Amino acid sequence: MSAYGALAASYDGLMAGGAYRRRAAFLERRLKKSPIPVETVLDLACGTGTIACLLAKKGYAVIAADGSGEMLTQAAAKAAGLDRPPLFLQQAMPRLRLAQPADAVVSTLDSLNYLTAERDLRETFRRVRRWLKPGGLFLFDVNTPCKLRRMDGQLYMDETEEAVCVWRTFFSEKKQACTYQVDLFRLREDGAWERDFEEHRERAWEAEELRQYLTEAGFAEFTITGDLSARPPAEDEDRWIVRCVREQDHL
Hints:
The chain is α/β, with parallel strands linked by helices. It has helices spanning 8-14, 17-31, 50-57, 69-79, 118-130, 145-150, 207-217, and strands spanning 40-44, 61-66, 87-90, 102-107, 132-143, 155-159, 163-172, 177-187, 193-203, 219-226, 239-246. Strands 3-2-1-4-5-11-10 form a 7-stranded mixed beta sheet, with helices on both faces. A 4-stranded antiparallel beta sheet has the order 6-7-8-9. Strand 7 (163-172) and strand 8 (177-187) form a beta hairpin. Helix 2 (17-31) crosses helix 3 and helix 5 crosses helix 7 (207-217). The radius of gyration is 18 Å and the shape is globular. The termini are far apart.
């Protein structure tokens, strides 16, 4: 089973809808300040498609890519009633390939932390640069190393009337990664509870690593702020917003 294979159907119910709307509103404000006009947006690692659908409702032509078929099934169902639904593609981030470049690329909710190997992050940045128009904006967020280290040994629980999700987290200094062990209990129609287990892993990428790999890939105007903010990040910030621009091609 792929990552989020079992969790996909319950993911949205366990997430706060208001958090999605605030994040989409923040993205839209930044897209309006892009160096080039934005009509087409790629939502990289779109998950269940909430952000992609919110951007589509704002009038953007959205391409939404994710490596999980289960998550994309949820996304497609969510988008079915839209006048201009996103185009959904099942693609892993390091294998991104589009028919034509986008005006902007966004990636939210720590998707890039799931790239735990340096080669995969570098290749993803190269692919984004390849499929982003010159002068186009690349905007993403990541969980900070501070947050992931702080999660070591913690236990979290999310619940709805039909699902209970228990997260156990462990941080490895050697691998610079946080492992999430997820127990998901779902209520079946017959009244019994069904249990699934998944394991997820996020890499703690340092700001200088991100800057180096983005620069090598051909990005400039690199800035990092606190979450959903234009302010510099605090020392104990949970999430960074990273903004950069694809450099113009040189003749």
